[in-house]
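Researcher: Here's the sequence for the chain we discussed earlier.
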Amino acid sequence: MLLIAAIVAVWLVFSYNRLVRLRNQVRTAWADIDVQLTRRHDLVPQLVAAVSGYASHEKTVLQAVTDLRSQALALKSPAQLGEIETALDQAVSRVLALKEAYPDLKASENFSQLQRDLVKVEETLQYARRFYNGAVRDLNDGVQRVPDVVIARSFGFSSAEFYQARDDERPSVQVKLQ
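Model: Thanks. This is the structure I predict for it:
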């Protein structure tokens, strides 16, 4: 009887610690996404300022980017943020496409550097999103799997949201560096 109680106790401790590790992995992965989104959100006003000097009559495009950035800064839910960030990706790509219509903008070193920085941030974000979703998958598996679901419910562990955008909002974004 004592052996069975010891085995159950070891299983409880092991399961609890594994769920804590998985939950912390999700939190860390989300923090990595947040860092990259902050970097992108910091670059957007600089991009808008660089473009507005050359393309002042493109106010609607520039205003859309600014508005989407403000919305993205206010959200914390991964699912909702995924939708807004997809729209922001599209709006930023429209701003970057303006360089074709404005040769002076295309030649601007500041604009070119901002483009390179945004491309680097986007690449890092893509990796961070995949890592986050993998961590969410692992946590969700852990809190839903029998018998660990007993531990999860007892200690308040819950499933996490995936970072995702709807498929119809996910067209390919083309960014060209010169």
